[in-house]
Amino acid sequence: MVTEREEGTQTIGGLRSLKINSLRNLLRVTVETEAPVILLSGGNGAGKTTFLEAVYLLARGRTFRSVKTGPLCARGSERLEVCAEVETLERGRGRIEVARDGAGVHRLADPPSWLDDGAAEMPLRVKLVSENPQSLLDGEPELRRRFLDLGVFHVEPRFARVHAQFRRVLAQRNAALRIGGAGVALWNAPFVSVSNAMHAFRASFVTDWNAMFRELAQGFSFLEACELRYDRGWPETESIEETLKKCGERELQRGFSLAGPGRADFGVTQDGRRQSLSRGQTKVAVTLLQLAAERVHLARGKEPAIFLLDDLESELDETTVRRLWELGCASRSQIIATRVSCRPESVFLASDRDVAMFHVEHGQVRPIS
Ligand SMILES: Nc1ncnc2c1ncn2[C@@H]1O[C@H](COP(=O)(O)OP(=O)(O)OP(=O)(O)O)[C@@H](O)[C@H]1O
Which is a GO BP term held by this UniProt record (predicted)? Predict the structure, then answer.
């Protein structure tokens, strides 16, 4: 497996075929390709993002779009299905299938052993640069914690148990704080222990992630002196026990925990201060964060993820698109990218990787020969 990656051939894992039934405007779509780069072009509303959504659904069992985008099931249909043949370097080929009806999302897989390992070991990992990547750095800390935790989870499956334990302890501690503090003392010791465990996992991932991010950021002058700063959720100068003691009164007044891993955050900083970035620059930073995380995952022996790049060109100048594209192609992960068809596609074809091009129109996806 490593040999193929190191030799730089185009033989990488990823999607080999994708069938979509009744997902938004994609009523019946079949795409078969072994290409390491899949480029979908088409006009607005053609269904390009929906194609990415189908792959994301397979990997994560949910969509990346907000509920405001409306129901996933095509109008007039009661069930959607997405099915893919996937090749992994370690396990060869297998099928993943997701179906959704009124009762929610069901994930089916063949061979069934792929299911036994749990979500962390599912054969399909995706890394998304979405239609609004800025929300990761500009939005709620909750989004960043989820992003960070997914990154940790992929390198350290034991993190899932610690995470679940933390959520249970936090819920109990908060319940005790809400009713005036009776029983809080009972939950402090487990809270301290699970907080320290969670921080240790996160910090170890962030150290590597930051190193990769700084390396990648060298290619972009506005990010040159920037780094990834992780805030564990309580001051670096004190232990979590000390912080709990200090904010005990306030926690009782507010009725919930004010410190701990549930308050962790990260950001792109320069000289310790949050860097102010334009929309385009923020998009670059988020793309680099994804690429950096992928490098960490690969270095820890993970299968390459599939990069889903939704309209990479929007808000970016041509040189920047070219640089990001080169970095993406150098990662040797499979890339599925969308673009609005009015722009020249030369940037995307200028790499040594095979590109399979498809045109998306009125919910149909057709190969461009
Ligand atoms: N449940 C649904 N049933 C049928 N059609 C839907 C449903 N939900 C969304 N759509 C339509 O499906 C299309 C999907 O658009 P999508 O966001 O995938 O387009 P896109 O090609 O990425 O466009 P853009 O370049 O504008 O981002 C839209 O035209 C939308 O109106």
Answer: double-strand break repair
Ligand 1 centre distance from Cα of residue 167 (Å) = 36
Say what the pLDDT of residue 40 is: 95
Q: Which of 48, 308, 314, 336 to mutate to test the pocket of ligand 1 (most atoms within 8 A of CB)?
A: 48
* Four-residue CA torsion sign, 197, 202, 203, 208: positive
Question: What ipTM was predicted for this assembly?
Answer: 0.98
Question: Model's pTM, two decimal places?
Answer: 0.90
Give the residues across from 360 on adjacent strands. 42, 365
Measured CA angle at 144 (ends 164, 176), to 5 deg: 45
216 Cα–ligand 1 center, Å: 33
HSE value, Cβ hemisphere, 13 Å, CA-based, for 281: 12
Q: pLDDT of 30-85, one tens digit each? A: 999 989 999 999 999 999 999 999 999 998 888 999 888 889 999 999 999 999 99
Tokens of 121: 């070991």
Write down the architecture of domain 141-302 according to CATH. Answer: Up-down Bundle (1.20)
Distances (CA, A) of 20 to 14, 127, 168, 212, 368: 17, 20, 37, 36, 19
Closest protein CA for atom 18 of ligand 1: 47
pLDDT 10s digits, 271-301: 888 888 999 999 999 999 999 999 999 999 8
Task: Give the long-range contacts of residues 205-209, CB within 8 A, separation 24 or more.
Answer: 205/148, 205/151, 205/152, 205/155, 205/156, 205/296, 206/148, 206/230, 206/266, 208/296, 208/299, 209/151, 209/289, 209/292, 209/293, 209/296
- Domain locations in the chain? 141-302
DSSP 302: P
Q: Report the binding-site residues for ATP.
A: 42-49
What separation in angstroms does the CA of 167 have from each of 149, 210, 276, 300? 13, 26, 33, 27
Can you tell me whether residue 97 is helix, strand or coil? strand
Mapped onto helix, strand or coil, the DSSP state of residue 249 is: helix
